Amino acid sequence: MSGIHDCFSGAEPPRIIGSERPTPVQRMTARQAVDGHVQRGELTASEAGLFWLESDSSLGKTILKWHDGERLLTLATPGLGSRVNGYGGGTLAAFPDRVVAVTERQHLISVSIGAGHWTTLVDDPDTAWGGLVADRRREWVLAVRESEGRQALVAISPDGQCRCLHEGADFYGAPVLSPDGRRIAWITWQLPDMPWLRTRLWLAELDAEGHLQRVQSCVPPVEGSIQQPVFAGQVLWVLSDHQGWWQPWELKWKGNDAVWTAAPAPAQDHANAPWQLGERHHCPLPGGQWARVRYNQGTGELWVGAEAALTRVATGFTDFRCLSVRDGTLYCVARSPDRLDVVLAIDPDTLGEQVLAGGEDPLPGVHCQTPETFIVPQTSRDPAVQGFFYGPTIPVADRPPVILVAHGGPTSAVYPVYNPQIQFWCQRGFAVAEVNYRGSSGFGRRFRLSLANHWGEFDVQDMARAAGYLSKEGRVDGDRVFVQGRSAGGYTVLMAVIETDCFVAGASLFGVTDPRRLRTMTHRFESGYLDWLLGAPEDQPERWHARTPRHHADRIRTPVIFFQGGQDRVVVPEQTRTMVESMKAAGHSPELHWFEDEGHGFRKPENLAAMLEWLNSFYRGHSRKANDCL
């Protein structure tokens, strides 16, 4: 046990076209577009109030916030954040008098709320922790422990003793306790699967000492992914997609058999792909009511009420996370297109809303462009594809150039939420279009899994279709379409400039360039992912060769700019270095910007600002009508 550390730091206080578009009094600099971008998440509640993580790009670390019902406080701790599976989640467990948290160094610390200090609970440099849950009956913390390439469900005592509750599965997630602490449920999955493909649900009783009794497990009636188990009283509910969408199901056991009963719900996903532990998109409310998130054409909606009569609430927001209940009030982290994230309180009876934190106007006096949904129509071969379009906020002489953004993942999605870097481009005469190509989450199981064996094909086709659609509709200049993506989106960029002639230039931000090499280097969580996306290489050698950008550098006919972090452990630096060398060997002159002190996803404000400035120079330099972009 280390020494005591003080932790209180005190209280804190429709697209318009052409000349009709309002002219802003100022615009963001590159530094303003990255400074002060506050992200809030991992909200949890206890009798002491609400706790959440807050990541401010200007601080360079993630901090712990506490709202005690009247005041907003910062609890001074080391930088926080789980690293389980490489993506973390479930960093906090809140008790009436303390919060247990995971630090960036993967130490478990106990933060005493009343005394205003923190102490180290567990210090194991070779272990990562996540999915924390407070067992208030026994004063223990339940967690997913990751060590030496293995995971287990464990319980940690107040003095830091760790006891294994369950092991044997490749991955664990979503532990949850019944209100009386006598029952526990959790999720597991096995390699080579990802948690949005196939998972197993477990249920057990806990005795007075916290040992598991009467352990049972089940899978859906047909193949599917279960996530986010939660108890409503003693009744267990889950979100399962075995009928095509992540929807709520009630589970009861008759002997060893699980009985599945569907709740009334539309054909919409009620959650997104579980890259992180600890997400909550549904939760029970007093009086038999529920709060549930639904995704409708890429936009999150929050619905509250009795099972068969839910009402949409908080309609000014477009994404909702971390649903929690305290003293009958619903709390969540909500996002919108024109403001920073908020911590929102909702009265389930009156449906009244109150913002407890956040919602700042990011740059007063600057017009903030909000997105429009667009849908690329279905064809005889291809499904409809949805995206979000942001027009320029300054007058342009003709149709604007556009930056098409391919999201990462690739099993992920884009949402219509505030992003200052999009505003940076709109204020310089560019349009921006984010595309939920095939394989994106939020559009049902079939759409999400359609990228299996087709990565580098269907995603590329959909980006090209989006470019053609926006050009045909007169929204953008079809001769000035740029394509940009990070990580898996960077791979889509490279395949797009190889396989199509739709784009005038491309930008790969720490993007995948050689899937076969990445397969041998990637971390355990995604070790089977590439085989699912492309097929096993021993079975599909020609496909792997065809879908490896590095092998086709000679086919690239457009300029490409690369950004890479020297400390990247997900897409290792070799990926970008060898691609650039292959392009040079083919007679091209790719532009490379190397940031030795960055990992996967740049974090330092000075580096993010430099990247924006380099991109701005690159796009202007390769636009055929660059003078239209200020």
UniProtKB/TrEMBL annotation:
Query: By its UniProt entry, which Gene3D superfamilies does this protein fall under?
Result: alpha/beta hydrolase, TolB, C-terminal domain
Where the record annotates domain Peptidase S9 prolyl oligopeptidase catalytic, the positions are: 420-619
Q: Which Pfam families does this one have?
A: Peptidase_S9
Which Gene Ontology biological process is one annotated for this entry? proteolysis
What InterPro entries does this protein's entry cite? 6-blade_b-propeller_TolB-like, AB_hydrolase_fold, Peptidase_S9_cat, Xaa-Pro_dipeptidyl-ppase/CocE
Region labeled Disordered — which residues? 1-25
Source organism superkingdom: Bacteria
- Which molecular function GO terms apply here? serine-type peptidase activity
Q: What is this protein called?
A: Prolyl oligopeptidase family protein
